[in-house]
Amino acid sequence: MPSSVSSSSSSAAVTNQYADLNSDPTAIPFLRGIDVNRLPAADCDEEPGVSSPNSTVSSISGKRSERDQPATTGSGGEDLDADEEDGDTSRKKLRLSKDQSAVLEDSFKEHSTLNPVSTQLLFQKQKTALAKQLGLRPRQVEVWFQNRRARTKLKQTEVDCEFLKRCCENLTEENRRLQKEVQELRALKLSPQFYMQMTPPTTLTMCPSCERVAVPPSSTSSPPVVAATRVGSSPLPMMGTAAAHHHRSMAAINPWAVGGPFNVLRPRS
DNA sequence: AAGTAAAGATCCATTACATCA
DNA sequence: AATGATGTAATGGATCTTTAC
C-alpha cells in the first residue's frame, strides 16, 4: 500500500505488484464481465454518476464535489442533486447497501489499493467500472477504499497494541521472578553455613551444549537431565525450547560444583 | 540532464451524519 | 422522544509521483 511517507522504492514495489495487471485486466474479479476498454479513462470522474438503487442518497457539498460532479438522475430514477438545488449546503451521507459493501469488500480483499500511479489509467478504469457496477460515483469508491484502509490499519494497530501489552506483562512477571531469584542467591551467599549443610550431588554432568555443570534430577540411575535444573519457565512465547534448554537458574546446582559456589555463573574465559 | 510547476493520486486527521441501544 | 455511543461517509490539507516544458 503506498503511503504518504512512501519512498520511491516502496512505490516501485507497488508498481511490480500490479505490473501484470496491465496485460490482464480480467485478473481482477470485479472487472470480469466488464469491458474496461469501453469505459472512460482518467477524466471519467467527471462523467455523470448513476444513482444507487439501494441507497439513501443525498447531495454532497464541499470542494471535492466540484471536482467530482454529483451524480445525476440515473436508471434508478433518483435525483442526487435535489438537495443542492434546494440550496441545502449541509453535507448528507448515503449509506451503502449490503450488496454494495460486499462487492467493495471483495475487491478490497483482492487489492487494498485502487489506483497505483504506475498503472493509473488501468485502475482509473477499474474504479470507474466498480462505480458503474455499484451505481456510485468513482469518488465514492475511492473514498470507500480510503476509509477501508484506515479501518484495517486501526484494527492492526489494536492487535499490535494488545500483543505489546501482553509482552510487557510477561516481561514484568519475568523481571519479578528474576529479582526474587537474585535475592535468594544473595541470601545464600551471605550465609555459607546454610549451604554447607546441603548434600553435594554424587555425580556431576556437563551439559554438552553449554559445557556447564548439571545436576541429575534425582538420585536414581536415570541419566542427568540438564534442563531440569531450570527453576520456573519463561512466560514469553519467544523463549522456546532452545532457550529453555539453558539453565538460567543455578539455584538447584550444588554450590561446590567446579571449585566453589557461583563460579559457574561467571563467563568462561 | 536537471529543475520546476501542474495535475492527479494517496494518506491522515477530522467532521458530520445515520443508526442503535 | 431525547440522548449518548458508535460506525462510517465525506472533507480538507499535506505530500508524493508523474508528466510536460
From TrEMBL:
Which residue ranges have biased composition labelled Acidic residues?
Answer: 78-87
Region (Disordered), start-end ranges: 41-97
> Where do the Homeobox domain residues begin and end?
87-155
Indicate, by first and last residue, each region the UniProt record lists as having compositional bias (Low complexity). 51-61
DNA-binding region as annotated in the record: 89-156
Q: Which GO terms describe its cellular component?
A: nucleus
Keyword terms, alphabetized = Coiled coil, DNA-binding, Homeobox, Nucleus, Transcription, Transcription regulation
Where is it mostly found? nucleus
Per the record, a Pfam family?
A: Homeodomain
Compartments annotated for it: namely: Nucleus
Which Gene Ontology molecular-function terms are recorded? DNA-binding transcription factor activity, RNA polymerase II-specific; sequence-specific DNA binding
- Where does the record place a coiled coil? 154-191
Q: Its family?
A: Belongs to the HD-ZIP homeobox family. Class II subfamily.
- The protein's name is Homeobox domain-containing protein
